[in-house]
Predict the structure.
Amino acid sequence: MTAPADPPPAPRRRGRPARTDAAAGPGARERILAAARAEFAEHGYDKASIRGMAKIAGVDPALVHHYFGPKEQIFAAAVEEAVAPALKAPAAVAEGPAEGAGERLARFVLGVWEDPATREPMLAILRSALANDTAAGVFRDMISSRVMIRVAAELGGPDARLRSELAAAHLVGVSMLRHVIKIEPLASADIEQVIAMTAPAVQRHLMGG
């Protein structure tokens, strides 16, 4: 008697890929996000692709869409991850007397840029934001809503938002010259000297005097 034939395989469902096919599991979302940062850092926003991110993360491209949606939303998630250390800046302004706010903010922001673990993700996102209007808008909205508005609220008084943004511009400018353009002697100066010489200007911006 002939044995019955095996039933045909069930048709593959559309939508989210199977967990085995997509390598979905613990850490899949984090792998995709890390891959997205790498893709944006290497190719910029315009040339970064979901397929490239999926290849780096070892997942199906459909899983990238499942977790994050279109590229703009993936970039927003990458921005949020990259700027997470900077979200503590308002607390640095608020945690002591007003006369020391400039030194505290300078030490905090320059410290974020000094640490390669926090500097490199910021640089990767910043490069994309400088080259693409969509990426710039995502980055701007994140910094504005999550950092600058809160710093301004801690300052209070006239033109608080403008004062906080001038202080941020000063510190980001110093950091870019030190770590990106690497202009000497700033690039190799002792960080304590840089903080000491930068803090008075930041204090003037913050306090409006």
About this structure: Confidence is low (pLDDT under 50) at residues 12-22. The first helix runs from residue 19 to 22. The radius of gyration is 23 Å. Residues 16 and 62 are 6 Å apart (CA to CA).
